[in-house]
Write a structure and sequence with these properties.
Keywords: Membrane, Transferase, Transmembrane, Transmembrane helix. InterPro entries: Exostosin (IPR004263), Exostosin_GT47 (IPR040911). Residues 157-434 form the Exostosin GT47 domain. The chain crosses the membrane at residues 25-45. The structure is a single chain. The protein is an alpha/beta fold and 500 residues long. It has three domains: 26-142, no CATH class; 158-298 and 466-495, no CATH class; 302-454, 3-Layer(aba) Sandwich (Rossmann fold), CATH 3.40.50.2000. Helix content is 36%, strand content 13%. Strands 1-7-4-5-3 form a five-stranded antiparallel β-sheet, sandwiched between helices. The protein has a five-stranded parallel β-sheet with strand order 8-9-10-11-12. The model is unreliable at 1-23, 44-66, 136-144 and 494-500 (pLDDT under 50).
Length: 500
Amino acid sequence: MGSNERNKLPNPYARKPLLMSRLPFSLVVLMILLSVLVVLLVMLLPPNKTKATCSSNVDNTCPGKVLVEHHYSLIKERDIDGHDLIHIQTNDLATLKRVCDLFDECRGFNSNGWLKTSVSSYQHGPADLYVRQEPLGPGKSNQPSNVQTEYRSFISNMKIYVYDMAIGLEHHPRRIGGYETERVFVEQLLKSAFVTQNPNEATFFFIPIRCSSYILDYSTEHEGVIEAKKILGQILSEIKQNHPYWSWSGGSDHFYICAHDIGAKVGSDVLKNAIALVNTADYEDPYFIPHKDISLPPSVSPGLHRLARITQGGASVDPVTRTVFAFFAGDLKSGRIRPTVWNEWSMDEDFVIKTSQLKPNTYMEYLRKSKFCLVVRGREVWSPRLVESLFAGCVPVILSNHYHLPLQGIVDWNQFSIIVPENEVADLKQILHRVTSQQLLEMQAKITSVYQHFVWNNPAQPSDAFYSVMQELWTRRNVVRYKSKSPQAKTRQNLQGGLH
């Protein structure tokens, strides 16, 4: 190709000046004046008005709009092809963030001043891309909505009374993989503003059991389960003898956490009405009741929590570098579905399957460079691989029938995961190849906006796993039935707004 021919090729980064050149001069001037006016208005706003205005207003009586301050993930040297909202005549990042916060349609912006209505597909470019993270909090809209009102009500009114128990303290909290969720959740709950010392204002009552500690302190699971059930019976007996609160609702406004594989079965004899927070959220489990119980985001090792901070749900990973089609690491010799995955796909060149123990850094590197990560049920439906893949921005492929996925009331799993029935393992490759490049980019982009809901932070932060689980619990308050006619129950019912 000659030099003259090369000079005729369009510059991909010059598309906006070319577009502007086709517009009438008066319209161009008007657009420039409008962007300048927006910048001036934003500069006049108080710096922290977004957080200070009406943050605790539940009844929408606060005058004016409620502006939401978002967080933004940085993706270096990435540009969006089209999807322009408006161009702001500044490269000041603080100003661009505040302008983007003003528009519900804004999904992010380039450092060159272009605000974007979509960030699902991007390419290499001279500017940096800032992707807006949608908060779990008051919502993305600057106008009141039912979702925003419900969230403010949750933050303002959720109260938890924690029973003070000495029973079972000889068993120490466990720090093993997904079971560690028990310890982390209890620690964050006790430090939170949700805890109340007044049982009459409590939305729920927390029974402080540690079933994983009881079970794992024994050499066999059978012995551990017997011990766990014995301790549970002792705890409930003390609650009934020394407190009136259980009888107020028959225990339906009480909850406990059990991250062990046994799940809600641990309390089947004595805690039938109580809400169970469990990892084993299996529709086939007769002890798990979906409309009552809550599926937990599994906890992961500290190293993989660092992956969440570094990778930001894949926001810092260039999709071009994801050269592995599908990845799995772990034992595939046991379980009802894992041997089938091994037999079908262990020799396929598109699948990277590692059955030996990987070093943490090697494992994280595979997660970062994979498009799809297999989440295959083992003995039970759940696996920490579910959240590990989200931390790295790898689209989870869930091979586990009847799994009630975590936080279904907050996130839409269909937008960022592939759910494959166990009887279709033989068609897995064909199913994944049906996902177009555009659909894959959209799922990866969605992961960057939801992954924080699965991170167990210390201390807890709004929109993380702890707050998300607590919000799921808040929605269960309408399941409670107050049957007692005692004066205490009636007083509490009035305080709770007559829930029924």
